[in-house]
Amino acid sequence: MIDTTAIIFSLGMVIYVIYRASLLDRQLPWFGVDRKSERNRAPTRR
Amino acid sequence: MRDLGLAATIMAFLGLGLVSPFILTLGYVWTDTFYPQWLSFSVFQGAPISAVMGVAAIGGYLLLDRRAPPRPTLTFILIVAFAGWITATCSWAAAPDQAWIKWNWAFKTVLFSAFVPFAIRSRVQIEALLQVYLFSAAGHLLPWGVKTLVDGGGYNRPLGLLGVNAGAFGESSMVAATIIMLIPLVLALRRHSILIPSAQARNAAYIGFVVIGAFGAIGTYARTAIIGAGVMVAGLLLHSRRKMLFLLIAIPIAFGLSVVLTTRWMARISTIENPVADTSADTRLIIWQWTLNYVDKHPLGGGFYVHSTSQIAVPIPGQEQPMIEHGRAPHSIYFEVLGEHGWVGLGLFLAVPLSSLLALMRTSRRCRGREELAWCRDLAKATQISIVTIMACGAFIGISYQPTLWDLFALSICLSEYSRRYLAEEARQRTAVPRRRTALRPAVA
To answer: What is the tens place of the pLDDT at every residue in B281-338?
Structure first.
């Protein structure tokens, strides 16, 4: 019972965290600057 | 049911990884920490989930996400050099067959920590790395705390999800060290998390982890717990801005614990002061001496699992004849690395945490007085405390190649590079558009 609860809690939190991270990573600037502006885009090297 | 949960998590990592490739790197960290292949009852039992996640993480980065790579920092160079050296020592290993088996997983852990800063660059990504490690570890650590509250715990009892000596969370001392190492990071996350926006949820989750985790650490009956807790509390006190308040809270807690803890617990912990009174501690000192003698003759080390060639005489209280032990593990990161990779290996191994600590101190200084970088400063300080704590605990446990240790070094590079690039980008904007007022708007990440 304790083990099952711990697994459910752990997996649930991990899924929630990666979902939120995926969402916010696309919305928020990387280095504190506005990525919508071309000038302020994070440095790109390809 | 358990396998359904594991399948959902794996699918979530792979699915979200297609949209945000850094999630695939987190998938590898999760696999390496949570051990889904060992927890599965059927489908994933023994499946190469780690290999799949590793290939996906590196492939995803190379194909989809090579923006803004970090500079090759000193810590990065030292990690790569250490990975190269531990590979080289396999060529003259005293136990070659076993050496290559251990190399197979140790090399991957070390090298992956050098890769992590390439995939983890922004604030969201850094926090996600920490949260995924924390909640993956919490699955293993919280049952120790809850079961200790229920039945009192005990040394070397299988109170976690895995059996005794399985992975990093099966052995009492490793569990205690990991819980204590995580506490400063958890306290920093509680103040600054953006992935869990609700303050109430943060307080419940993180303070709950600290309280239950503390019971778990006590319930292991591991002497490592008392050493780790001492170092961690000293670190928190050193970095605390309200030292008197900290002492006013810490002293009653320490006093209360000394009253509440059982004599059985006190009896085991007291063997720190007199190691000869305890056979396992005494044997440890003898195998350390064997390691020093070995590197005297083999200064380049004897490769992984060199201790399997050891033969030591352990005095048994009340007996004239000592007991002969073969292949005793050193149970210390320092003597483990020294025996396996010699003085060069130990030098590199010690240089990695040292350069990490220096990088974190620089990060902390860089962020001083910057409200938008307060999270980075607090996390840098917490990571310093965690590294010192785990290195102190490591003197008595063999976790040289566990992700517990190497993820912290990776985190130090991520934080250091983030703060450097944030300030460089800000300076660049200031010089590029001096008249534009909106260019330096308050940062949220």
So the answer is: 778 889 999 999 999 999 999 999 999 998 888 888 778 788 888 888 888 999 999 9
Calculate mean pLDDT across residues B139-145.
Answer: 88
Q: Do B128 and A26 touch (CB under 8 A)?
A: no
Residues of B in contact with A41 (CB under 8 A): none
How many angstroms separate the CA atoms of B269 and B272, rounded?
Answer: 6
What is the number of domains present in chain A?
A: 1
CA–CA–CA angle B247, B249, B253 (5° rounding)? 110
Pick from B135-144, B197-206, B373-382 the range whose average pLDDT is largest: B373-382
- The ipTM estimated for the assembled molecules is 0.86
Q: At what angle do helices B374-393 and B223-239 cross, to 10 degrees?
A: 150
Residue from the list A14, A21, A31 with its beta carbon closest to the beta carbon of B421: A31
Map out the domains of chain B as residue ranges: 1-67, 68-275+330-440
H or E stretch at B416: helix B403-432
Q: What is the pLDDT of residues B190-199, one digit of tens each?
A: 999 999 988 8
Parent domain of A33: 1-46
For chain B positions 135-164, those within 8 Å of chain A (CB to CB) are 135-136, 138-140, 142-143, 146-147, 150, 161
- Two tokens, residue B369: 């007085």
- 3 state DSSP class of B1: coil
Nearest Cα of chain A lies from the Cα of B394 at a distance, in angstroms, of: 26
Nearest CB partner across the interface for A6, out of B30, B161, B421: B161
Q: Say if residues B44 and B141 touch (Cβ distance below 8 Å).
A: no
